[in-house]
Amino acid sequence: MQKQLTPQQKKQPQKLLNQKKQLTPQQKKQLQQSDIRLKRDIVHLATLANGIKLYSFRYLWSDTAQVGVMAQDLLADPAWREAVVLEPDGFYAFDYARLGLRMATFAEWQARGLASVELAPGRGSLAPMPVAHAQRGP
Prior knowledge:
5 helices
């Protein structure tokens, strides 16, 4: 399930890298690697009412199933593009807190559903909406 970048997205890296340089050390610590190229076993779990897609996946270097977003999805939407930065290694990272979300394990998702990825109210700039579509994970 590899997604290709659009020509417009391919022009974004320098802008995104410049944004990263402007981040404070604290903001840089909040970034999570969210590049689809670093993930395997990707399964779409849910689409929030605001359009954000949640997936289960495993990082290439881990057997732990996680729940989160794909940076490439966010780059495609102007509303969320600014939450994505390009790391010096060429992979995209994402600040979940900017959207009122956090990454969770798939076990947490199974136990708590959407609540497992929600931050406390008022912590993010966009609160998650109720799930509009849901599937089973790995």
